[in-house]
Amino acid sequence: MKFFFTVCLENIFSCVTECLMCTGQESDAENCSKTETAEAKKRLFDRLSFNENSSQNTRMWPLTFHDNPLDVPYFDPAFIYVDIYVTSITNVNEKAQSISTQVKMITGWPNSNMTWSPEEYCGIKSYAAPKNMFWTPDIGIMESIKTDFGTKESPYVELLSEGFTVSTDVLALTTACKMDLYRFPFDTQICNITLQSTVYSNQEIILDTLSDAKWATFKSKELFQAQGEWELISINSTSATVDEDVGESEINQLIYQITIKRRPLLYVINIIIPVFFFLVLDVISSFIDTSGADKVSFKVTLLLSISVMLLILYSTLPSTAENIPLIATFCCAVFCLIGIGLLETFLVNSLMARGAEKRSVETTSTVSGRDDGERDLKSPPDSVRDQNEASSTLNRLKQILTECWAATPPNQRKKLSWTRAARIIDVAFLVLYIITIIVFMSVLWKLWFQL
User: Fold this and answer.
1) How far apart are CA 446 and CA 451, in angstroms?
2) Can you point out the beta strands (E) in 177-299?
3) 177: part of which helix (H) or strand (E)?
4) Beta bridge partners of residue 259, listed in sequence order
5) Beta bridge partners of residue 191, listed in sequence order
6) Pick from 220, 12, 213: nearest CA to 105
């Protein structure tokens, strides 16, 4: 800092802070009457040349000139001090990647033409003057999508006796914010508000903060009005320089980094807990009797419920995210697990139905053979010749079955039980299903909370 104001920068800062905290206090003189104070204000009005409307004293850019050893005048860049306090977060649009905030923006800059001695004017240290009479820095917000004044723009600036001009505005900002939704809804976002002059280079204007990050965060939390989905964590600031579009000079930037954290309770209650409960119900459905169709219809209902949750996520999360959010992975994985469980139910039901069909055929054959034997015993033979022929046929069939049994290998002689195979598959799948769920939820929990 090379301009004359550097020597008493700390005094200026304390004066600016006092002025901002005590709005409307223009005089701290205790020995002056109201009449004397009014006369002092009139004399100060004439001293500052407000009645002459002089461009030289008011609207002129407040440069600070110096003389070097070669008697060539030069000037230092003007330091523009800016403080931003976030008073509310009105909307965060994940799909549009934008954030709407209401901020209080305090801008201060030196003006060597507007200085006076408070002792000569009844201790008046600050003076309110029309803003349109003074040069004001052209500070723009680079990420701005839409900027409105949250309240009526103040038509005045405050002049301090040390030669410092302060402007206070309340802005409703809608700025672009690149969000990382990988850990949604347990995510923390950092949105930038980049302040930059659109005309002046860093050789003419340098942006700096009026207070430190700790005070900006404290003051923002004190002024914070809305208690919604987002919580303000901190406000930090950094400086940078960028190349100018025209010319070879550079432009100074002041970057405010606003860190906000989402309150996840709403999404936990509406999405995460219901989806997890659907998964638990799917595990419990394994104990439903597989002989009926109730188990299949129950799992299909669970699949439809998960589909509704996926539609809700689609309407909330952006479709162009670089990383798939963990909550989408969670819902899709649960959907796939329930779908695999439904396929396993189809397989088990098919095996059970085949086993029941085989038992029905064997029972029918046994009953038919028994009925024929009973009928043969009760009904007398037509003739002895017919009995001999039947006995001869049975002997031949027994001989053929004996030869076939002897030719069959021992490992193929065992009769396959479809019902038993279905029960084994069902139990094995349930064990693997529970293990998969435990592993999946453990990994997801570590990624979500970065344990």
Assistant:
1) 5
2) 188-197, 205-209, 230-243, 250-262
3) none
4) 190, 234
5) 258
6) 220
Does pTM surpass 0.90?
A: no
Q: What is the pLDDT of residues 94-126, one digit of tens each?
A: 888 899 999 999 999 888 778 888 888 888 888
CB 264 within 8 A of CB 448: no
Q: What are the two backbone dihedrals, phi and then psi, of residue 422, each rounded to the nearest 5 degrees?
A: -65, -40
| Res 403: pLDDT | 59
Residue boundaries of the structural domains of the chain: 4-263, 269-379+415-449
Cα angle 59-60-64, degrees, rounded to a multiple of 5 = 140
Taking the C-alpha atoms of residue 139 and residue 252, their distance in angstroms, rounded to an integer, is 11
Q: How far apart are alpha carbons 175 and 192 in whole angstroms?
A: 8
Q: Which fold has domain 4-263?
A: Acetylcholine Binding Protein; Chain: A, (2.70.170)
Q: Phi/psi of residue 127, each to 5°?
A: -145, 130
Residue with structure tokens 């000569």? 120
Going by C-alpha positions, the residue among 264, 270, 240 that lies closest to residue 254 is 240
Question: What are the tens digits of pLDDT across the range 313-368?
Answer: 888 787 766 788 899 899 999 999 999 999 988 888 888 777 666 555 444 544 44
Question: What are the Cα distances from residue 231, in Å, to 184, 227, 238?
Answer: 15, 8, 22
Note whether 251 and 197 are within 8 A (CB).
yes
Peptide bond into 185 cis (omega under 30): yes
Residues in CB range of 98: below 8 A, 6 or more apart: 92, 145, 174, 175, 176, 177
Amino acid in the structure at residue 149: F
Which amino acid, residue 437? I
Whether 283 and 299 have beta carbons less than 8 Å apart is answered as no
Rounded to whole angstroms, the Cα distance separating 143 from 192 reads 8
By the 10 Å C-beta count (0-12 exposed, 13-18 middle, 19+ buried), 389 is classed as exposed
Q: What are the C-alpha distances in Å from 334 to residues 126, 130, 338, 366, 440?
A: 66, 64, 6, 48, 10
Topology adopted by domain 269-379+415-449: Methane Monooxygenase Hydroxylase; Chain G, domain 1 (1.20.58)
CA-to-CA dists, residue 307 to 194, 281, 334, 343, angstroms: 41, 16, 10, 17
- Residue 144's beta-bridge partner residues? 175
CB 19 within 8 A of CB 125: yes
